[in-house]
């Protein structure tokens, strides 16, 4: 959590005579990139989630841009107040600028928390990608059997294909169970993070806005007639105290959230219930659920190795996989 006064003065007023735009950045453009090409090459099963993750990346960039703009505006409002020549306006606008700047920092923190949620979604996407070859292999064998039954109903190859289909169906059954397990677990985890980030952002922004309203109460806006001189500003100490109170409130802020229960602690490293042993061999490499890379074809393990036919044909999972960033 950032503090108002940590590595920051009580003022956000520019120390330069001209506005420095060297740190200003424009929002990223959505161009066709290698990431776009990877989206085209995605397995069918993971295309929709890939698009969601990519869209979230654009949204996070927008929050980061909003953070930079808010901090820039905070400095501008402070500089403007000083230029008015009104001591009261100058003091209040400077303190308002400090609070606005902290609001910008909270936007950046929110963007970081969204990135954590996005990373969890990637774990579902990677698992979907690793399961796709299993589905494709099963469908391919089924199609070959149907074609052979039509062209050569008495072919001895039918027996071999049917044995291979049994193995493919068994492995696909394991893979589908692993996919639904990781999908449910990580969906809850992802949006637990997302909702907590939204609540934190909202509560802290409300906190800062309330202190800003305290500052505004210190500014006397009683109309004057020409020739009248306004009294000197007498609330400098109070305005500084408002910032101190805001800093303390931010430092003492703690989340108050209803816990999202999860039974995923019962899931083993093979993405199956921990009490499942023996025949529940992992089809999806566990690293897929916790990292960025999709399991390579060599990591896909048949749950029924003992049932390989005499021809030595391999079970599902030997197709080329997709590596994703």
Give a concise summary.
The protein has 325 residues and is an all-alpha fold. It has six helices and no strands. The two termini are 29 Å apart.
Question: Main traits of this protein?
Answer:
6 helices, 325 residues, mainly alpha, elongated
Description:
The protein has 325 residues and is mainly α. 59% of the residues lie in helices and 0% in strands. It is built from six helices and no strands. The protein has helices at residues 34-40, 47-83, 87-151, 157-216, 236-252, 286-290. It is elongated, with a radius of gyration of 30 Å. The model is unreliable at 17-27 and 291-325 (pLDDT under 50).
**Termini separation:** 29 Å
Care to count the β-strands?
A: 0
Beta-strand percent range: under 5%
Shape descriptor reads elongated
Largest sheet geometry: none
Gyration radius, rounded: 30 Å
Low-confidence stretches: 17-27, 291-325
Helical content (DSSP H or I, runs of 4+): 55-70%
Mean pLDDT: 79
Helices, by number, come to: 6
Helix and strand content put the structural class at mainly alpha
Please trace the helix and strand order, writing H or E for each element. Answer: HHHHHH
């Amino acid at each position: 959590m950032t503090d108002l006064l940590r590595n920051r003065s009580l003022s956000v007023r520019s120390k330069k005579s001209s506005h420095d735009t060297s740190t200003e950045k424009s929002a990223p453009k959505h161009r066709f990139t290698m990431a776009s090409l990877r989206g085209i090459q995605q397995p069918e099963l993971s295309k929709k989630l890939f698009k969601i993750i990519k869209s979230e990346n654009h949204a996070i960039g927008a929050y980061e841009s909003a953070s930079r703009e808010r901090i820039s505006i905070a400095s501008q409002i402070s500089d403007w107040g000083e230029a008015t020549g009104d001591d009261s306006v100058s003091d209040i606008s400077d303190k308002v600028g400090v609070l606005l700047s902290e609001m910008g920092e909270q936007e950046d923190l929110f963007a970081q928390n969204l990135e954590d949620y996005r990373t969890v979604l990637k774990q579902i996407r990677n698992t979907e990608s690793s399961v796709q070859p299993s589905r494709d292999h099963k469908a391919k064998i089924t199609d070959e059997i149907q074609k052979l039954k039509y062209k050569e109903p008495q072919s001895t190859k039918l027996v071999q294909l049917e044995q291979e289909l049994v193995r493919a169906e068994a492995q696909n059954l394991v893979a589908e169970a692993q996919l639904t397990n990781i999908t449910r677990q990580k969906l809850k985890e992802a949006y637990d993070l997302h909702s907590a980030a939204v609540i934190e952002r909202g509560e802290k922004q409300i906190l800062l806005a309330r202190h800003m309203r305290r500052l505004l109460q210190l500014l006397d806006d009683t109309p004057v007639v020409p020739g009248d001189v306004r009294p000197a500003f007498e609330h400098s100490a109070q305005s500084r105290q408002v910032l101190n109170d805001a800093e303390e409130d931010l430092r003492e802020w703690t989340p108050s959230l209803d816990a999202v229960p999860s039974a995923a602690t019962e899931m083993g490293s093979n993405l199956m219930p921990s009490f499942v042993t023996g025949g529940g061999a992992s089809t999806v490499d566990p690293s897929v659920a916790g990292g960025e890379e999709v399991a390579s074809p060599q990591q896909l393990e048949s749950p029924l190795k003992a049932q390989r036919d005499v021809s030595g044909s391999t079970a599902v999972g030997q197709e080329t996989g997709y590596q994703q960033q």
